[in-house]
Design goal:
Immunoglobulin-like, 7 domains, 5-stranded mixed β-sheet
Length: about 800
């Protein structure tokens, strides 16, 4: 009961010692504590409330994955999770601790918890064998020392073997020494000479006692056989051998050669070498000792990171009777080589980062460690170039991965960041670890139409409610940030809202015409469509839709002139020559393009051989000379049709009255008096202007001809037909060249009145007539048709 009370007091005193130094919490507990035993109030030591622990995702992270400790999330107390056996956990190491990381998020904090495990005296000293035998010559002098096998205690420190005791006897005492590692060894001291005749065999009890509370002990029996002779034990060259060896030495490499000398002769002086019982099983696996030569060689894989110094106790035993032994200690100090690549441990806060994350935002905490020492254990880390992240060194072995530049999910939706770590050894060793970071979307892109201006061609007379076009807007964002809706913006069509004429499907962007359109009333409509995403705040863009109404052949030609009634009378002269213009049919079509392209066709006539209609001009011309038997009243029916599909047409009836030969002015005057409805004021004005212009032009020609004839007496000129005679002055002969002048027709888009008759005159000028400007005019070949007249010389 008292023992348990002392342990409890000791435990309470130790657990009250906690310290937060440079982000580390330190606690001390003894080993072998029961599960659930209080270690420390970790929430209080970190300054966290119970609510904060859950909100900030408080958790313990073990280096090896073994959770020896755990935190009660209901009260923030650190307790023992599993049985802790210090001997299994740390072996014979002087210090033993359990280390775990504490990760707290929002913001990220990393703390280190070091729980030192104190040894309790739960192991008794033991000897490898229950009985040891010694052979001691009776000639051995008092004061001789005989090394004894040491006891082993799994505990350390004061709980390890502290002293040895020998059972009471009259010949031997006990002497203890401290080894270089602090352990105790015992030697049997001969205090009084032996007498084989009195005691040939002695039985002693050797007791090993530890320093724990309470103290524990272990015993072994020592059987001493008293012999004669061999009074010199082997002696090593050095009591302590020190040797340095590379941890990378291959198996079979020679470490050192031991040498022990025995002054005896013969078999009493022959020595063999052995490892004593103090050498642990692990050391025996790594090193071998040749009993004949004393060579110590490597027979296992050395590891500086596992153990830096190995201690071997060697004894040299002669072949005498009794055999004598000498002892020496060999310390093998390993030299570190760069045989361990750096290790990277990544504690990521989140695998997803918002694309609007500010520069300096911490993404992950990276621990870089190397099991090597010195320069071989100095680690540097780096990231690949040209990425919007960087490493910030937060402590000797920790880095923070932070945002260093603007993130754009639309350009790079994720990053596979390869973190490289390398040490300073020669040659340098490196390692790589990849962390995957996804970029989350924010609404930073407005929907963009595929075109800023859409031209939509819509045939007139469209069906109301039918779809006419679909606009499309693309949004580079994700989810609801990219979900786009379409709306018509307020615009006006003929002082009315566009919403009354068109509608748009908010999901598909399809535009519908709510009524039918007429090309002849409206040819072009402009509306604005807005695209809006569902982000917060929502972003918008607009596009202009230019709706062009296409013409449909839905209007028949309208005849403007002549009017389509019984009074549409045209007077023609019976002396009109073939090709003379009689009148012209003028029509228009409200459609456009090919639908308004008109053609004219004579479909009915009193006599089809007299008149013809121009296919595209609508001009009615005389096709032959009038005959006496021809009817004086000719009725024509002209068809006017457009070029649409299907074609639409209209007809007009024209009554032509054939009269005798009258002058143009008289004819025109009569026609105007009899049929004033055939001409409009504009047509009449155009005829007057054309007539005036023609007269002025003729006067100028006469004037220029007179001047030319005055200057050149060899040339004679006339007007309506120009005939020039060249005179040979020496002979008095003359030649006459006759030139035919084409009909003078002055056409107008409204009314064309031909010059009915064409005449050919020969104008001769003699030297005697040089004083006269004009001579009598005489017709030349009056019966020759006008169309057949060519320019030629009369003497040819």
């Amino acid at each position: 009961m008292a023992k348990n009370l002392r342990r409890l007091v000791y435990f309470v005193l130790l657990t009250c010692v906690s310290d937060l130094i440079c982000g580390r919490l330190q606690y001390v507990i003894p080993e072998e504590m029961e599960r659930g035993t209080f270690v420390g109030n970790i929430a209080e030591d970190l300054g966290l409330s119970i609510g904060e622990m859950s909100f900030r995702k408080f958790r313990l992270v073990s280096d090896d994955g073994i959770q020896l400790l755990k935190v009660n999330m209901e009260n923030g107390i650190l307790v023992v999770n599993k049985r802790i056996d210090r001997e299994i956990l740390c072996g014979r190491s002087a210090t033993c601790s359990v280390s775990q990381d504490i990760a707290v998020e929002n913001p990220l904090e990393m703390h280190r918890v070091d729980v030192e495990i104190l040894d309790v005296n739960d192991n008794s000293p033991t000897f490898l064998e229950l009985r040891y035998t010694l052979q001691i010559s009776e000639l051995t002098a008092a004061g001789a020392l005989f090394p004894l096998e040491s006891a082993h205690d799994a505990d350390v420190g004061t709980n390890a073997v502290n002293s040895y005791e020998i059972s009471t006897n009259k010949h031997f005492g006990l002497k203890t020494h401290n080894r270089s590692d602090g352990s105790k060894i015992a030697e049997l001291v001969l205090e009084n000479p032996l007498d084989r005749e009195q005691d040939s065999t002695l039985h002693l009890t050797l007791t090993a006692i530890d320093g724990g509370i309470p103290r524990k002990s272990g015993t072994t029996e020592i059987v001493i056989t008293v012999l004669d002779v061999n009074d010199n034990a082997p002696v090593f060259d050095h009591q302590l051998y020190r040797v340095n060896a590379l941890e990378s030495l291959p198996k079979g490499s020679l470490i050192i050669t031991l040498n022990a000398v025995d002054l005896d002769q013969g078999t009493n002086g022959e020595v063999k070498y052995y490892l004593t019982s103090h050498v642990s099983h692990r050391v025996r696996e790594l090193f071998s000792l040749d009993s004949e030569t004393g060579h110590i060689r490597v027979q296992g894989s050395l590891d500086y990171e596992e153990e830096k110094i190995y201690q071997l106790e060697v004894k040299a035993v002669d072949k005498g009777t009794p055999a004598l032994a000498g002892r020496a200690e060999v310390l093998v100090e390993l030299i570190d080589v760069n045989d361990n690549a750096p290790e990277l441990k990544i504690n990521s806060l989140s695998i997803e980062v918002s694309e609007n994350a500010a520069s300096g935002t911490v993404i992950a905490i990276i621990s870089a460690m190397d099991r090597d020492s010195g320069e071989n254990g100095q680690v540097q880390c780096r990231l690949p170039p040209y990425i919007p992240f960087k490493l910030q060194k937060s402590s000797n072995k920790q880095y923070s991965l932070v945002v260093s530049d603007t993130l754009n999910r639309e350009i790079s939706p994720f990053y596979n960041i390869s973190i490289s770590a390398w040490d300073a050894g020669l040659p340098s060793l490196s390692t790589n670890k990849t962390i995957h970071i996804s970029i989350s979307d924010i609404n930073d892109n407005a929907p963009q139409f595929t075109q800023s201006l859409y031209n939509v061609f819509l045939m007139e007379n469209n069906a109301a409610g039918a779809s006419i076009f679909a606009v499309t807007a693309l949004d580079l964002d994700l989810g609801k940030n990219s979900k786009t809706s379409y709306f018509l913006l307020d615009s006006f069509i003929s002082e009315s809202s566009a919403s009354g004429h068109f509608s748009v499907n908010s999901e598909s962007g399809r535009i519908y015409a709510l009524r039918s359109f007429d090309y002849e009333i409206q040819k072009k409509i402009k509306i604005k469509v807005q695209a809006r995403d569902d982000g917060t705040p929502s972003l918008t863009s607009t596009a202009l839709v230019n709706i062009i109404i296409l013409d449909q052949n839905d209007n028949a030609p309208v005849i403007l002139s002549p009017s389509n009634d019984n009074s549409s009378i045209v007077i023609a002269s019976n002396s009109a020559l073939p090709g003379s213009l009689v009148t012209k049919v003028i029509a228009t079509d409200a459609d456009s393009g090919q639908n308004a392209r008109l053609s004219y066709k004579l479909i009915e006539a009193t006599d089809h051989s007299i008149f013809s209609v121009g296919y595209t001009s609508g001009e009615i011309r005389v096709t032959r000379n009038f005959r006496e038997q021809d009817a004086l009243r000719q009725k024509l029916v002209v068809l006017v049709k457009d070029n649409g599909q299907p074609s639409l047409s209209n007809t007009v009836s024209i009554l032509i009255t054939v009269q005798g030969n009258v002058s143009e002015n008289a004819f025109e005057g009569k026609n105007k008096l009899r049929s004033p409805e055939l001409f409009s004021d504009l047509n009449f004005l155009l005829i007057i202007i054309l007539g005036s212009t023609s007269c002025i032009f003729l006067i100028i020609i006469f004037f220029l001809a007179a001047v030319k004839c005055q200057q050149d007496r060899n040339i004679c000129c006339c007007t309506s037909r120009i005939c020039c005679y060249r005179q040979n002055i020496s002979t008095g002969a003359s030649r006459c060249r006759r030139v035919a002048k084409a009909n003078l027709n002055y056409l107008d888009s409204v009314q064309t009145l031909p010059m009915r008759d064409s005449y050919d005159y020969t104008v001769c000028r003699s030297p005697e007539s040089s004083k006269s400007d004009f001579l009598f005019l005489k017709p030349c070949h009056q019966t020759l048709p006008v169309n057949d007249i060519n320019i030629r010389d009369t003497d040819r």
